[in-house]
Amino acid sequence: MEGTNPVNKKLAAALSGGAVLVLALSGCSSDDGNEKLDAWAKQVCDAVQPQAKKIEAANAAIQKETSDNSTPAQVQKTDAQAFQDMSEAYKAIGDAVEKAGAPNVDDGEKKQKDAVKELDGIAASYASLKEQVDGLDTKDQAKFADGLKDIATSLDKLSKSGNDALKTLEEGDVGQAMAKQPSCKSASASAAATAG
What we know:
This protein is mainly α. The chain has helices at 5-18, 35-67, 72-100, 108-134, 141-160, 164-169, 172-179, 182-195.
């Protein structure tokens, strides 16, 4: 029952690129003290941290499944659950950014709206990948492997696109305020470990 493994490895590789979209929180700390912005960053970072852990765990589950000689049914179950978790996590991060309101920077409202739209879009993409996995034929090894290949391709596209608005949101003062938050630091450190 080893036929699915090479394909699922490809899936895992594509996934580790996509799972860290929202967590590229870099930037040096700035001390020019924008209290409103710091409060905004704290609210978002505190909400992101548990979701980052959820994304990381989903990623790890798929990685683990690829190292075992798993049956198609096991792979299907693990991958479907992982995509479900990721979809929920990105939706929750989108909700958190929406709830936090616009950051206190130029074009803050536009940046916030674009990021929320993008996060919701990523969540929807993972939800549709879950449906694709659920629909695969686990009784036919070759068909199953082909189906996984298609999913890996979609995942690869998802990991390469879709985080422009998040990057824009995290530019400049917003990124610096987020970088100061302990919860964002730990989220981005664990994300970097997952991606590497």
